[in-house]
Amino acid sequence: MKKMQLYILPVNNRVVFPYQTINIRIPETYQYDAKKFNSMIGVLPNLDPTLCKEKNIETIENFARYGTILKITSEDRTFYTFTAGYQKNHREVRYYGAFAFGRFKVIDFDKTSPYYIANVELISDEIPPEIEKAVKADNTISDFRNLAKTYVEIVCKPEAVPPKKQLIENEQSINKLVFSVANYLDVQPEVKQVILQVNEIKERIKEICKILQSKNDELKLANELEKKVKKEMSNESQSRQLILRQQPPQYEIGGFNVSPEDEMSQLEMQIKQKQLPENVFNAVMREFKRLKSIRSQNAETNVIRTYIDTVLELPWNETTQDTYDLKLAEEILHRDHSGLEKVKKRILEFLAVRSLKGNSKGTIICLCGPPGVGKTSLGKSIADSLGRKFERISLGGVRDEAEVRGHRRTYVGALPGVIIQALRKCQSKNPVILLDEIDKINRDYRGDPSSALLEVLDPNQNSTFTDHYLALPFDLSNVMFIATANQLDTIQGPLLDRMEVIQIPGYTLDEKKDIAHKYLIPKQIEENGINQSIIDLDKESVDLIIKAYTREAGVRQLERNIGSVCRSVAVKYSTHKQSHKDKPNLPEFQKVKITPDYVRDVLGIEIYDEEEIKDRINSPGIAVGMAYTAVGGKTLIIEASMSQGSGKINLTGQLGDVMKESVQTAIGWIKSNWQNIQFMMKDPDIFKAEKLFDNIDIHVHFPAAATPKDGPSAGITITTALLSLLSMRKIRSDIAMTGEITLKGLVLPVGGIKEKVLAAYANGIKTIILPYKNRKDTEDITPEIKKNIDFKFVKNIFEVLDIAFDEQEELSLRKAKFEADQMNKQSKL
Ligand SMILES: Nc1ncnc2c1ncn2[C@@H]1O[C@H](COP(=O)(O)OP(=O)(O)OP(=O)(O)O)[C@@H](O)[C@H]1O
User: Fold this and answer.
1) What is the pLDDT of residues 321-330, one digit of tens each?
2) Residue boundaries of the structural domains of the chain
3) According to the UniProt entry, where is the signal peptide (predicted)?
4) Which helix (H) or strand (E) holds 787?
5) Which residue CA neighbors atom 30 of ligand 1 most closely?
């Protein structure tokens, strides 16, 4: 074998076969001079040493031992300029065209710096005639050609197939044929190096055939599978599932099919790329190592994988930039909500303080009011005005502490709690989270969700909120929490204490009209697929919908009713369009004018009547009270009747204990003050004071009997109704009252005044009697109500009697006479 010295060019992960023509670029630093080295150059693959060991490739350190010798056929030089500091430098780069004409084996290196010179042994690939004959005689070559043709047909780009096929079919030199096909192979460089190192032609053919065979089988199978899948499934998602099922070792990540090893390395990359806090990173890496150590797919691996995915999906560092622009916030609040001036003002103050403090720690707002007054949508507007993401968590009916704080991972099907899930959904560390219906949280044997919320809402604790599922602290101090509630009574004291309550009592008639015209009608028109040009909802009709079809504090039912009217127009419009298609000569659709009659047609018989109370207060013993419920204020008619009997007191209408006691207190006061109120009696002879209550049975009934009622605020109404019954005097039908009564006749303040006043106003009440100490609660009642309602503040029940009855003049005269008689009696004594 011929030995020689050769200039060596190491090439990374590339194997050049003889008969290849290639272009090479040799940097100036390699000091290659074609003349000096007889236009010869040896390329030696620089391969991964571990893979080389695995595949038995002979290497000198990282270089393979077998290379290819090239003859330079052309040379080209270019200069390019580069700047280093203020200096401009020029560098020469040389490009060479070269033809590979043989193989060599490195014996040793003579020089390794600044370039490589090796002593090599040239390997002859000349095939002895008898071997060539033998190879051609059996089917080896024809089989080789067939396999190679199939391979290029499947693998190569269509335009590259014909020239390659032509070479495979026609090439007479076995060496050229075999090395060319080896060059076409799409395999790792280490595999190509093995082929290059084989000295025996038969061996080399066998090696290449093996690769061709397995590649062809693999590709054919994949093609067949794909065809089969396409045929079986027309639906894309189904076909994806089928492919996954039929190729069990493959997994799908981010739309790519990957093997389990790839999946693991992808996951590891994801963990490393996500900038997790150190403690979180360590915890996830621990889980990742556990996952890696479990080889087979089982329930445990799924649990760990889900956990890692959950942690990676959390916004550990992602935040949105706050826009503390108060003008913009004000605009957004006005844009989305009509009225609610006091609430908006309070929200703006709240935002102003936050912007000045520079952090988001501090008070938590609780918007409290009846359904449909816009609490949820206000929360959304606050998020919009701050430029933060918005998430709503419904706490209604949450009874299990684990729903807030998550289940420990030891439980089957464990999940993080609602707070962590909300953060995962909104992908921001500082969103506005609306804790909806915080008053509907229940407590039972599964724990107390309120106490978990205490931690969430406490600015001093929530920076290290630890969900049981994650078992890692998550900083909630940047989250802005807003709670909503229908009533405050059911919220636990410590929880309520952490929040600043903003009351939204409900809307007056005028406010509802305004909301309907500005917001609800345009919204419903759009939602029902029609437009302003085909419907005209006039003021009168909207008034009718509000007065006769709704009796609510908010506007939800109103919105629904407007929706029904819009839908009826949508049906008409759609039918007309259909017929217009069939008969194009039909006239254009006429704008539908919504009149009160149209409203009645769509919504049916009127449900509420403003005169209802007047009609019901038609005899002595009936008084109108005011109640405060979770759905807002309500007027409450109390009826009392008596009959001959033995002093029994019957109470009906699902009363709670406190209300029952109010009735006892009222009767107690009447009995003990009987002498002082006798002047009221229209017929004082009918009942003799001493045995009055022994001879009659009294029945007090609270209509809407199916609704449970409780509380002390009906005290003065019950007393007035009983006095009306006994004195046979009717109570004014336009008067309503609320207040607790003591045994001594004092009137004590009660809650829910604004809501009660709104309800009374909606029911056509003109005078409202309130406890004196509730004066402050009427200060911010809207001017509309103040203008139409006469408020009377009373300190004791006698003052109520001065206001509440019909024929007030006659009663005043009687009272004056009674008082004068009393004075006379006292002076005689
Ligand atoms: N002042 C208002 N201006 C404009 N639209 C309003 C106003 N108040 C309520 N709405 C509309 O009424 C509908 C009901 O409001 P929302 O769902 O916010 O009520 P809510 O108070 O959260 O009720 P719930 O207590 O039942 O959750 C929404 O479409 C909302 O936009």
Assistant:
1) 877 788 888 8
2) 3-123, 129-228, 251-309, 326-503, 509-603, 612-820
3) none
4) helix 783-788
5) 374
- Pinpoint the alpha helices (H) of 95-160: 129-137, 140-155
ipTM of the complex: 0.95
DSSP SS3 for 486: coil
Cβ–ligand 1 contact at 376 (below 6 Å): yes
Q: What pLDDT, on a 0 to 100 scale, did the predictor assign at position 244?
A: 45
Q: Specify the range with the lowest mean pLDDT, choosing from 13-27, 66-80, 682-696.
A: 682-696
Q: Which residues pair with 502 in a beta bridge?
A: 367
Residue positions forming the annotated binding site for ATP: 369-376
509-603 in CATH: which number? 1.10.8.60
> Which atom of ligand 1 lies nearest, measured to the CA of 520?
5
CA of 554 to the centre of ligand 1 (A): 7
Ligand 1 centre distance from Cα of residue 759 (Å): 18
Q: Which residues are annotated as a binding site?
A: 369-376
**Do 757 and 793 contact (CB within 8 A), yes or no?**
no
- 3-class DSSP state of 647: coil
Question: DSSP per residue over 575-612, as a string?
Answer: HHHHHHHH-TTSPPPPPEEE-HHHHHHHH-S----TTH
Place of tokens 């999940």: 415
The residue whose CA has the least distance to atom 15 of ligand 1 is 374
Q: Is the CB of 486 under 6 A from ligand 1?
A: yes
3.40.50.300, 3.20.20.150, 3.30.950.10, 3.40.50.720: CATH of 326-503: 3.40.50.300
Report CA dihedral (702, 706, 707, 710) to the nearest 10 degrees. Answer: 50
327's enclosing H/E stretch is helix 326-336
Q: Is 709 near ligand 1, meaning CB less than 6 Å away? A: no
Does ligand 1 lie within 6 Å of residue 556's CB atom? Answer: yes
Non-local (6+) Cβ contacts of 646 within 8 A are: 694, 695, 697
- Report the amino acid identity of residue 206: K
The closest residue, in CA terms, to atom 10 on ligand 1 is: 374
Centroid of chain to Cα 364: 20
pTM of the model: 0.61
CA-to-CA distance for 728 and 807, rounded, in angstroms? Answer: 12
For 148, phi then psi, to 5°, come to -65, -40
Which strand (E) or helix (H) includes residue 84? Answer: strand 66-84
SS3 track for 29-68: HHCCCCCCCCCEEEEEEECCHHHHHHCCCCEECCEECEEE
Distance CA 98, CA 209 (A): 28
Say yes or no: CB of residue 518 within 6 Å of ligand 1: no
Distance (angstroms) between ligand 1 centre and the Cα of 556 equals: 7
Which residue has the least CA distance to atom 25 on ligand 1? 371
Q: Is the predicted pLDDT of residue 84 greater than 60, yes or no?
A: no
Distance of CA 725 to the CA centre of its chain: 58
Checking if the pLDDT of 110 tops 90, the result is no
Tell me if 403 sits within 8 A of 419, measured CB to CB: no
> Catalytic residues, which ones?
713, 756
Q: 375 CA to middle of ligand 1, Å?
A: 6
Cα 586 to Cα 814: distance, rounded to the nearest angstrom:
77
Q: Which amino acid is at 484?
A: T
The CB of 428 under 6 Å from ligand 1? The reply is no
- Using pLDDT thresholds of 50, 70 and 90, give the confidence band for residue 85: very low
602 C-alpha vs ligand 1 centroid, how far in Å?
24
Q: Which residue has a Cα nearest atom 4 of ligand 1?
A: 337
Q: Is the CB of 373 within 6 Å of ligand 1?
A: yes
Looking at domain 3-123, which CATH architecture does it have?
A: Roll (2.30)
CATH no. of 612-820 = 3.30.230.10
